[in-house]
Amino acid sequence: MSLWDQRGTYEVARASLLSKDPGIPGQSIPAKDHPDVLTVQLQLESRDLILSLERNEGLIANGFTETHYLQDGTDVSLTRNHTDHCYYHGHVQGDAASVVSLSTCSGLRGLIMFENKTYSLEPMKNTTDSYKLVPAESMTNIQGLCGSQHNKSNLTMEDVSPGTSQMRARRHKRETLKMTKYVELVIVA
């Protein structure tokens, strides 16, 4: 029985880069060395997965300005070079419905969705090529904010792209005219 079938456990994966090797998967790669296309092999106990990845383009618009506020209310605006980064998207070869979203900044870290299940991939401590592949259903989620009502992570492909009726069921009207507004952005790093 695979560790995937046991709630609260993970499967150990060994990673190797099959395309031109930009560096060791467990170490941070300088941004300028991140290739546009990567092919990564994950060796699991039960099988091998080949991940076809492309570096995200247009992730953040040119001229994007980041603004944050100090304790005294002073605003600080920064403009950074967001074109050199280590964020990738792609799929698992042999599964057209799969979705992969990974960062290569400090080893491989991110989400892999295939066979109608979602897994989190993260580096194991004290190794450069071993990773934990954790089923999302074994992870608990902090109760969401900003109108999100769910508190369990049971992600499937349908949850990521829900139908209109599902969206209406999870959303509710809020009085927002006088509220502070935030934009939430999740970047796998």
From TrEMBL:
Keywords of this entry: Disulfide bond
Gene this protein is translated from: Adam12
Name the UniProt record assigns to this protein: ADAM metallopeptidase domain 12
Domain Peptidase M12B propeptide: 32-93
Alphabetized InterPro entries for the sequence: Peptidase_M12B_N
Pfam families named among the record's database cross-references: Pep_M12B_propep (PF01562)
